[in-house]
Amino acid sequence: MVGYMEDHEIVIVGGGIVGLATAAALHKKGVRSLVLERSESLRATGTTISIFANGWRCLDQLGVGAKLRQKASLLKGTRDIMLYDNTIRDQPNGNIEQRCVRRRDLILALAEVLPPETVRFNSHVISVDDDPVTSYPVLHLADGGIVHAKVLIGCDGAHSLVSEKLGFRPAKYAGLVAFRGLTTFAEPHGFPKEFYRFRTGKGSFVGRTPVDDHVVAWFLARQKLPGDSEIIHDQTLMRDSTAKQVKELGIPEHIVEMIKNCDVETLNYTGVRYKAPWDLLLGNFRWGTTTVAGDSMHVMGPYLQQGGATGLEDAVVLGRCLSEGLVRVNVGERYGKEWRKGVERALDAYIKERRMRVFRLSSESYMFGAMAMASSKHVKLLMILAMMIIFGHRLSHTRYDCGKL
């Protein structure tokens, strides 16, 4: 297929959670799309994603919520354990739904609702430009192929090529790295159905979340160390090093043992990145008939556990707006001036609906990260008070409803 050339109406770059969710949203509205995924198969690796009520509303709209609920326990709240002053703060969820879902389960559930051949693998997009005649997007692939799209949606993550096309500044490195993994217990583990977060006061965090009665997700977030490059490509070294560091932080021994006994193939290392809130407030989310969703638009730190759910919101809103905005015209006029104007109005409606939502979430996440890294207790207290005044209850953002498809 070297040197091939194709035309498609809607092309989505990236077959991760948001790319598949966007394709599913469009499919639910009777609109076909093509997803270009650079990997050889579905990227069903990784650990888990924490999803609150706002994300579950989206999954219900996409038709996969009921199935995923069967695979993830309902969590009652968060227990923050401050090791530096031996205090504990319980934060119940009340009537707000929260579950920790395996990334694999979510990816497979979204893929299953898509028509065959929606996702094309081994399709690595290396550049994007505009057709000199029509101004519609043109994608150049690593295998020499060229794909002409009438609508282009970038769901290609924090290092998004499509986001770069729109003129966005690259995501910034937050100075933290995260190690994540899953541990499977032969017998029910018996842990409370809560998110446990251990704060060391040294800029490091350790968390534990039950996925179901037998599987527990855990993480270590800390500042990057010089020796990280030596361990991140060896799963066994990464496991042993993480367990040792967690032990040195004074975390309870059962967490250390959990890491030692983890499913090595699930281990994951990532650098925490974010896009500055002011960039989201002022940035250009559309160029012609090109736009972005998910981390390509608003990658943020993990402090609010909203990255995945916010991307699901994007998918639902984009599917709704785009399906409503596609203009039905005569065959000979299809993709002409009126059709293009209808698409651009639809993308503008999507952007208008999402901009302040993602700006607010990114601002709250940014402030939470700054507060977590602050060394002074007085500064931490002032920032907590400021966040309460500006953003209200810590879970208020999870009550958001992006509407129906």
Automatic annotation (TrEMBL):
<feature type="domain" description="FAD-binding">
    <location>
        <begin position="9"/>
        <end position="326"/>
    </location>
</feature>
<dbReference type="GO" id="GO:0004497">
    <property type="term" value="F:monooxygenase activity"/>
</dbReference>
<dbReference type="Pfam" id="PF01494">
    <property type="entry name" value="FAD_binding_3"/>
</dbReference>
<keyword id="KW-0503">Monooxygenase</keyword>
<protein>
    <recommendedName>
        <fullName>FAD-binding domain-containing protein</fullName>
    </recommendedName>
</protein>
<comment type="similarity">
    <text>Belongs to the 3-hydroxybenzoate 6-hydroxylase family.</text>
</comment>
<dbReference type="GO" id="GO:0071949">
    <property type="term" value="F:FAD binding"/>
</dbReference>
<dbReference type="InterPro" id="IPR036188">
    <property type="entry name" value="FAD/NAD-bd_sf"/>
</dbReference>
<keyword id="KW-0560">Oxidoreductase</keyword>
<dbReference type="InterPro" id="IPR002938">
    <property type="entry name" value="FAD-bd"/>
</dbReference>
<dbReference type="InterPro" id="IPR044560">
    <property type="entry name" value="MOase"/>
</dbReference>
